[in-house]
Amino acid sequence: MKMTKREYMAYVGDTMPKSPHAANLLRAFITGGLICCVGQGLANMFYYFNLSIDDASAATSVVLIGAASLLTGLDLYGAIGKFGGAGSLVPITGFANSIVSAALEFKSEGFVLGMCAKMFTLAGPVLVFGFSASVIYGLILFFSGVR
Q1: Given 55, 94, 128, 144, which is the most exposed site by the fewest CB atoms within 10 A?
Q2: How many CA atoms lie within 13 A of 59 on its CB side?
Q3: Does the structure show a pLDDT above 70 at 145?
Q4: Taking the alpha carbons of 121, 125, 130, 37 in that order, is the dihedral positive or negative?
């Protein structure tokens, strides 16, 4: 059976399950917002206990990374991701999840060649391009005289 492109697109539109875009958007917004609210609450708590803003920010990052890593190790972060979709990819927790989940996936291959070598399979390109972009941006600012 030969279909034209228009017929094929109509067929796909009729047979493909409809995605609840509004519900997905709302769940992502709630999930990402809750993660950010927890982070802000932690920062406020650390600041309240007389840490400087820089130290409170660093402590908040450590706690969020540790919590996301622990939840990934306990196989609970996946449930958060299923519910919240892209909302669970808030950079600090999503990045920790990507590293820990890759390490757990390859732990059966051994510590060095499995866990350590494979934990940056997803995070590695993000780091490379992030570092490269920051160097290029820094060079542009340096040579443009902006300080």
Answers
A1: 144
A2: 17
A3: yes
A4: negative
